Amino acid sequence: MSDLLADKDAATKAVVDWMTKKAGSKTKFYFKDFCKVFPDDKQRDIKKVINKMVEAEVLEYWSSGSTTMYGLKGSGIQHSSEGEE
Amino acid sequence: MAKHKTPLLDQLESGPWPSFVSDLKAQAERRAKNVEGVEFQIPVDAVEDLLGVLELSYKHGRTHWKHGGIVGVFGYGGGVIGRYCDQPTLFPGVQHFHTMRIAQPAGKYYKTDYLRALTKLWDFRGSGVTNMHGATGDIILLGTTTPQLEEIFHTLTHDMNQDLGGSGSNLRTPADCLGQSRCEYACYDTNALVYFLTNEYQDELHRPAFPYKFKFKLDGCPNCCVASIARSDMSFIGTWKDDIRIDQDAVNKYVECADGYPANAGAYKGSKDWGPFDIEKEVTGLCPTRCMQFKNKKLFIDNANCTRCMHCINVMPRALKIGKETGCSILVGAKAPILDGAQMGSLLVPFIEVNADNDYEAITEVIENVWDWWMEEGKNRERLGELIMRQGFQKLLEVTGIEAMPQHVQYPRTNPYIFWKEDEVEGGWERDVEEYRKHHLR
Questions:
Q1: What is the predicted ipTM?
Q2: DSSP state at residue B289
Q3: What residue segments make up the domains of chain B, in order of their start?
Q4: pLDDT band at A85 (very low <50, low <70, confident <90, very high)
Q5: Which residues of A fall below an 8 Å CB-CB distance to B?
Q6: Measured between CB atoms, which of A55, A71, A84 is closest to B75?
């Protein structure tokens, strides 16, 4: 595992910075997009760290039912945009 | 009186088959009457509005559901699918109408008190409309709102010992046939293996990181009752290595049409007069590899040429039995026709042991090698079958460390070239030009 991925805070910052930079064009990302942030790491290791970020409510899942994507918590379409509390 | 007029749906009830429209109408009426005094947590008229929006979709010829959302339960990336109606003013009862997938038990064995508890929960916190079962085998609960999701999940996990199923870019809920619990043809315990895989790969089921969906399906024998060969990215089909066991006396009983020996275990009896049993017409003549012969009251099988089609065993189950050395075959890459057309699974491992004592290590090794490759090389929304098409079956053999063998060959090759790799050629690609020139002048 790379030093960047092993350092929880640095990894979170790298992901949030990368997603924020892209936020102008899109708010939902495929899992494979995170591999660009951690090019030296194995996908299974990246998965563990990314899912910890979901648990920490930094990220959230979006699912069409067949495909799952990730977004920054609170960005893009939310429950409230669909009229839900 | 119905809330919405539904002439197009009403027409669907006129056919000879049981109708989901009648079921929905009955459920709408049940909710309106509420004889049991349920404190409905979502709109009482949700099912009325469901009928209404469906009628409108039929009228317009397009859907009025929006796809997907961020709904889910904490920590889970699957099991809940967000569904919103794009006509909320007309149909407020289904404005938010999310689907929940509940993992079905192995072999779909339920106790009635479990089903009662589940439907009671769903009447209380959802629409009461279920789909038993979805394509992945899950129990599908259709229609609830976001605030109900965590409540339902809490009751399922704490009171009913029940987990959500898979959806999205996850491992989907593994599905199996009844296997050895009911069926004499089963070559391995499908229920035990599906239970093991479900537990072993919990992380893959609930926390999405695959390029797309991935399905396991398990069939106990080549009859393939679950149709795993066509419906799963990785299919486990029971098979045997040794010979079909023959009881020659019983074979002759079938030939003599003796009582208690009906062809096909009597499955077609009474549908029409099939005439006396004819072993040549009904069994040996239908063998796809012509590896059987009935001569002098004795049945011979050339087992080396048997492709395990199961036909002879299905027709004469009291005379023929699967072999004793059993395991399963692994096939990969089946999928529905979203991209590149539909594909059946391709045989990857002709025979593999199914051994619970070592935690099925032979099987998990194949699974994890395939996943490592697909996760690394698969494009977003690319199924395993599409990756195999794109990079080649040979690449799959390479990453799984499986030697090419005759069973992998589907048809004679159509490409006349052979491309060697450097490590397959003595001396590699490098050559000593001076040494070469000693023997070959310019």
A1: 0.86
A2: T
A3: 7-159, 175-241+326-408, 245-321
A4: low
A5: 30-32, 43-44, 46-47, 50-51, 54-55, 60-68, 71, 77-79, 82-85
A6: A55
